[in-house]
Amino acid sequence: MSNLIDIKVPDIGDFKDVPVIEIFVNVGDTVKAEDPLVSLESDKATMDVPAPRGGIVKAIPVKVGDKVSEGSVIVHFEGEGAAAAPAPEPAKAVVSAPPAPVSAPAGLAEVRIPDIGDFRDVPVIEIFVKVGDSVQAEDPLVSLESDKATMDVPAPLSGVVRALRVQVGDKVSEGSIIMVLATGASSAAPVSPAAATAASLVAARPAAEKAAGGIDEEAFALAYAGPAVRKLARERGVDLGKVQGSGDHGRILRADVESVSRGGADAVPAPKPAATAATGVGGIDLLPWPKVDFAKFGPVERKELGRIKKISAANLHRNWVVIPHVTTHDEADVTELEQFRVQMNKELEKSGVKLSMLPFMMKAAVATLKSFPEFNASLESTGSGDTLVLKRYYHIGFAADTPNGLMVPVIRDADQKSVPEIAKEMGELAKLARDGKLKPEQMQGGSFTISSLGGIGGIYFTPIINAPEVAILGVCKSYWKQHSSDGKTSSWRLTLPLSLSWDHRVIDGAAAARFNVHFANVLADLRRVLF
Ligand code: CAO
In this predicted structure, which of 236-240, 244-248, 417-421 has the lowest mean pLDDT? Predict the structure, then answer.
């Protein structure tokens, strides 16, 4: 006897309104009990919802991007046997992102390094727990130290440490698995290979174990993929460590594994020399980098790039390659603004705050972003297409030149701060940057960036967009220039050169030109900030 069943999202702890990021089945598919149906991803965890029993998919009322909670129907199903569907098993969670006190379904959870800003390959300097320890959400688990910051990674949820995946000295980045926690009911149970398999946690196997298929278990464990994708990779003998994910943040999707198992070249680029390697967004096949013995031509000295330079180099390279940049130049008449700035500096002399042009530009940028919201946005790739995320906050980053390289501290809520407040905070952040003491969170969350070379010189340049932002404003040194509005009379005006780089996937040239004109008008008459 067959019957129709609504398959619902099971108890997924405290998670609510979680987006569906992948749908593994199609209408008409026959599935077995335990086959994954959909994958959900909150900012805390990735969860696959398995079929509670075998049957045929009759309808799928959700699509990728839809938000679901416990009880939401995800699949209409024609099952075999009894009329009532058995309660589905809890979804399986892979903890993948920022720490916060959360509860999770019973099971094993891989604890990953959360978003730590631009830091990569940061050494673990201390591990605060050992296997068997009980931890509460927010307890510190490990400490990381780059040459710029020390960060503790707290437990994202409570549980018992089942396995450590790192040792002191190991280098980690966002997404690296650091340990396995047993959560909920399973935290009391002893670890068994069966339990580990049930939760698809290959990380629970001894590191570096090589499976029969030649799979590098350590790389497999570190790969960013959900349980169903891991299971599929196992079934097809695909080494996840070598698969390039096409999902958000490089997440490996089912389609990536399928492509590799079909022998597709698109998902697994062959290893290439560093200088010609693909950037993770579609291979770029170039001539090999010229190999020259420079010493043949004269004395040379070799100097390794510092950590910050390496991090910013990797980010700038990716951004430059991935984003179709266009730069629009313009200029602003800042004659009156400069007089006002000098006057305000006299008035503020005793306060210790000194105003350069930059804090005024921040206010002008906020006013302009309010009129051109698509410049205060990010492009988000979802399974069903690209979405523009328009931000209702104005966190303005500014490029700071430091002895170690370029850093971009962020002034949060610049719209709610006065020019002197911004100037003061900017001075403090720039000092922290130069002293190598900026915390990751002081560089995160920016929605637009200004890069000012005004204190140094130059006329125009082509700044590289600070992804995932979609535009950056470069400014150079203001200079006196003769202007004429009618071709007959002229006057000398203090002129600020502007260079706005924008992402042509999101913004078009007319909007960029209007943005610059608006920004210049605001600088020319700051009263326009009020409009
Ligand atoms: N035109 C003319 N003079 C300017 C100016 C401009 N656009 N901008 C700043 N100045 C002046 C300032 O008024 C100050 O003059 P005084 O010494 O007479 O007071 C002087 O130049 C130095 O300013 P500053 O650089 O200390 O201050 P700032 O607020 O303009 O900038 C900061 C702060 C942190 C952004 C800056 O020091 C810096 O690091 N800039 C480099 C950014 C960078 O590297 N960008 C490139 C990124 S792409 O590789």
Answer: 244-248
**Of 329, 395, 504, 518, which is the active-site residue?**
504
Q: What value does the mean pLDDT of the chain take? A: 81
Q: What are the DSSP calls for 100-121, one per residue?
A: --B---SEEEEEE----TT--S
Beta bridge partners of 144: 124, 151
Active site annotation includes 504: yes
499 lines ligand 1 (CB under 6 A): no
Q: Is residue 181 part of a domain?
A: yes
- Ligand 1 in reach of 407 Cβ (< 6 A): no
Question: At 115, which amino acid appears?
Answer: D
Asked if residue 153 and residue 24 are part of one domain, the reply reads no
Please give the span between the terminal C-alpha atoms of the chain, in angstroms, as a whole number.
69
pTM of the model: 0.56
Residue with the larger pLDDT of the pair 430 and 307: 430
Q: Are 443 and 408 in contact (CB under 8 A)?
A: yes
Provide the CATH number for the domain around residue 246. 2.40.50.100
Does 131 fall in a domain? Answer: yes
Domain residues for the domain of 152 are: 97-261
The reply to whether 115 and 58 lie within a common domain is: no
pLDDT(267) > 80: no
Q: How many domains does the chain have?
A: 3
The model's pLDDT over 360-407, given as tens digits with 9 standing for 90+, comes to 999 999 999 999 999 999 998 765 668 999 999 999 999 999 999 999
Distance separating alpha carbons of residues 158 and 137, to the nearest angstrom: 5
Q: Best mutation site among 452, 473, 478 for ligand 1, i.e. most ligand atoms within 8 A of its Cβ? A: 452
Ligand 1 near 398 CB (within 6 A): yes
Beta bridge partners, 41, equal 46
Residue 389: count of CB within 10 angstroms of its CB = 12
Local confidence band at 138 (pLDDT 50, 70, 90 cut-offs):
confident
Q: What is the 3-state secondary structure (H, E, C) of 282-327?
A: CCCCCCCCCCCCHHHCCCCCCCCCCHHHHHHHHHHHHHHHHCCEEE
Ligand 1 pocket, 201 CB below 6 A? no
Where would I find the H helices in 89-237?
A: 193-198, 217-222, 227-236
